[in-house]
Amino acid sequence: MSTRMLALNIDGTLLRSNGRLHPATKEAIEYVVNKGVYVTLVTNRHFRSAQKIAKALKLSSRIIAHSGAFIADKVDKPWFEKRISEENTFAITQIVESYNANIRILHENFSIGNKKAINSSLIGKTLIHPSDPIFYPVQFVESLSDMLIDEPVRAPVIEIYPSPENKNEIRSIIEKSFSNVILREVSEDKMIVVEKGVSKENALSLLISDLDLSIEDVVAIGYGVDDLAMIELAGLGVAMGNSPNSVKQKADWVTRTNDDQGVAYMIKEHFRKQHSDNFMKKYIVKKR
Fold first, then answer.
1. CATH 3.40.50.1000: does it fit domain 5-80+198-285?
2. Contact present, 270 and 32 (Cβ < 8 Å)
3. How far apart are the C-alpha atoms of 193 and 187, rounded to whole Å?
4. Percent of the chain, pLDDT > 90?
5. What is the pLDDT at residue 187?
6. For residue range 170-200, what is the model confidence (pLDDT) as tens digits?
7. CB distance 104 to 128 below 8 Å
8. Please, where are the H alpha helices in the chain?
9. CATH 3.30.1240.10 fits 86-195, yes or no
10. Which GO terms describe its cellular component (predicted)?
11. Which of 43, 106, 195, 285 could lock 10 by a disulfide, CB 3.0 to 4.6 Å apart?
């Protein structure tokens, strides 16, 4: 059966450790697009950052951004969006700031974070990403909860950067106090909060259904623990060679690492025998 969709995580998957795309990866994406495969990016990043990478790959398809809370091909015309309410955005922010933790609201048009500095090196690497577009405003304020009183926001994603000693307590309070949001740990230093029902795999399922495809038509390539459900969902789930063991053990295929062009290698190996839609149409016409 031919693969009709390729779903790709960005960080740890498409991008090398230096945050750049390898030319071989760009060539591989173009190669598979020319075969008529729908390629979508599935990421925790905000939409504009993901869109910048999509443009570098010459993709015009819909992007699954904000951990699955936002699906669009244009920032001002979302096909799907699911946001945390203004009230819960404020209340969660107030709780997190009471623990002297860093917090960031990741909107599709802007980012707002507080200035509390637990780990300045970590915050420098995670809050201001080098691939963030210039036209994506990144603002820091003394008290994010105070700002939200005057300027409420319905957040697609809230990012939390707790200290090790406060992480479990923050998690416990949010999980007990808010029944309609989900808190996920995406790394040792970072947790995210999204509206209940939001996930990469649920967003991918929506897109698959809208394109009239089946799960078996999909190859998904991911890296982290938060990609695991998407990898297990797909007809062929692929883990990167640099993925944690817990992810690699559940994948159907483990490719090379992101620094060894794992995406390009997997694409060439899997898709090289698959003909393009145009080829198959010509073949069917001739056969008749």
1. yes
2. no
3. 13
4. 81
5. 84
6. 999 999 999 999 999 988 889 999 999 999 9
7. no
8. 23-33, 47-56, 86-98, 120-126, 144-150, 167-177, 200-210, 228-233, 245-248, 262-271, 277-287
9. yes
10. cytosol
11. 43
